[in-house]
From TrEMBL:
Coiled coil: none annotated. Pfam families: UDPGT. InterPro entries: UDP_glucos_trans. It comes from Malus baccata (Siberian crab apple). PANTHER family: GLYCOSYLTRANSFERASE-RELATED, UDP-GLYCOSYLTRANSFERASE 72E1. The keyword Transferase applies. The keyword Transferase applies. Keywords: Glycosyltransferase, Transferase. This is Glycosyltransferase.
Amino acid sequence: MSSQPHAAILCSPGLGHLIPTFELAKRLVTHRNFTVTIFAIPSPTSKIESELLKAAATPKFFDIIELPPPDISGCVGPDAAIVTLLTVMMREARPAFRSAILGMEYSLRPTVLIVDLFSIESLSIGDELGIPKYVYVACTAWFVALTVYVPVFDKEVEGEYVDQTEPLRIPGCKPVQPEDVVDPMLDRIDQQYLEYVRIGTNFPKSDGILMNTWEDLEHKTIDALRDEGLLGRVAKVPVYPIGPLTRQVQSAGSTSTGIRDKGLFNWLDKQPCESVIFVSLGSGGTVSLEQMTEMAWGLELSQQRFIWVVRPPARSADAAFFTSGNQDDDPSTYLPKGFLTRTHDVGLVVPLWVSQVDILSHPSIGGFWSHCGWNSSLESITNGVPMMVWPLYAEQRMNATMLTEELGVAVRSKVLPSKKVVGREEIKEMVRKIMVDKDGQAIRGRVKGLKLSAAKAWSVGGSSYNALSQISCGNERKC
Ligand code: UDP
């Protein structure tokens, strides 16, 4: 076994999984002097994912071993939901992962195993090797709390979660409103629900849970996860809040997933400070044609400058999850007639993909209209940018509630966009609230405060810095 600490990290498909995995790997290398090997299974259909993997090779912080995506067509139906697809794919990939690790020369084998949520069943490979093993959940502590507790809800709650009249109470945590539950809890008969409960049941088999959050951001939930009189008795293992782990700004002119479009940044350079709202629904979010029309009108009526990353409309909100950045398209075919011409002087419409961190860190950006995936939310907070949240799928409804109600750094629509088309007038009001209205100033002030809190967590001796130092390297004399 390796004499230097060596972490093997297993990562499931999806940009929102790969990106925070790379950031964790970098920190283990730079702060703990680990060597890291990431075992990734890229979505067979995502061009951006394969480009991201290529780009991660330089400068080389860690090794990447791409495992072949297993053929799961015989195990899942054609309409299988994302959590089903991901968990089944990672289950079927386990033999390949095991062979890849056991096939390593003994002296080069990992001393620590880290798996993500969807590959939690591979913790058993850590047992085989006799090394410490962790689960990395690149989400909030509140989401971890719900996932840890879902096996209890499964026994205690009758009927569908969304039909409950009372919020779902997790010991020591903010209750979850029935309409905010994560996608796999929307239908208890669907296979993805069973997979999700199984994930919750498997947490205690790990030696700890790494979370992309920090003490000051979610101290109440983190305390509950640690408290054996509360949620800690269910979680059973230590939690390590090691966030925020977010992508760094790309170097000028970088290509591939950077897509540091020169024209776009030249335009941004000319705009006044904090005057542009950035609109992007993550790596795979999509909306209906009707909603897209309202979004366009709302933006236009708000009279604010904008950059809008668009994707062709689709019926399901996660339609582009496995294909982000793939389709070539012409936005004029689905945006309202004349929109591009009328907004030519104030806005830019960019198809499919831009380098989001570069945009959010630009001083001209004053707001972020986001699907509030957790990576995007952290990128907004760490750049001090207030948000207009537009949750679509996965755990995004919980993120939206936390960002608006708990942290007060975002505005949201009265009714969830996943329930009903949000109209142009309401959109206009929300955009103006974070960009220009007086009562939006408090939101901007709070997010700037959180930016400082995030930086403090990762300063030397800060809470996340210390939490990462506490993770076993599997070879205590060398830690
Ligand atoms: N992203 C990007 N450009 C885009 C869309 C997304 O760079 O046009 C990045 C974004 O910065 C974030 C990740 O992709 O790091 C998306 O992760 P998130 O958790 O926000 O949402 P998901 O896409 O997984 O739903």
